[in-house]
Amino acid sequence: METYVSTDVETDGPIPGPHSMLSFGSAAFTPDGKLVSTFEANLHTLPDAVGDPKTMAWWETQPEAWAECRRDLRDPAAAMADYVAWVKGLPGKPVFVAYPAGFDFLFVYWYLIRFAGESPFSFSALDVKTFAMAVLGCEYRAASKRNMPKRWFTDRPHTHKALDDAFGQGELFCNMLAESRRAKG
Questions:
Q1: Of 5, 53, 94, 179, which alpha carbon lies 20 to 30 A from 80's?
Q2: Which SUPFAM superfamilies does UniProt cross-reference here (predicted)?
């Protein structure tokens, strides 16, 4: 059995190292869409990193989300070690799920290797948009949220608070997975 670990990150720039992961949240789901567990952490910024000017200008438009990701800050090394233990404690084999996986996994993987010395996800991540492309039978760029069926979405708002957004994309993925499996009979 696989456990789908829907993960969202909030950052102060486009890449890890020069910029920091400010917070991340994961919601783990069974293949039938049941929530197993959650994890979230707000992190201290990296010592030599600086916020990207464009990203920081965007954060100025999101005061509630900014305040959320700057409270109860944790040391990245301690948070990532706790995260590895949490992922390893989940039932089944963990699968990292994100939208877009290319961004979220980049940060999480970098932080896992840098601070915990390992990734319980190995080198791979499942991208929700790519899965939507396959389910819809369309080109990748056409598999945007605005073109996805409304039935795949819940009424959960996209808040830019990591755990909230991890829930939303996890529910989206589980709905897509269920429909895809029903279609195959």
A1: 53
A2: Ribonuclease H-like (SSF53098)
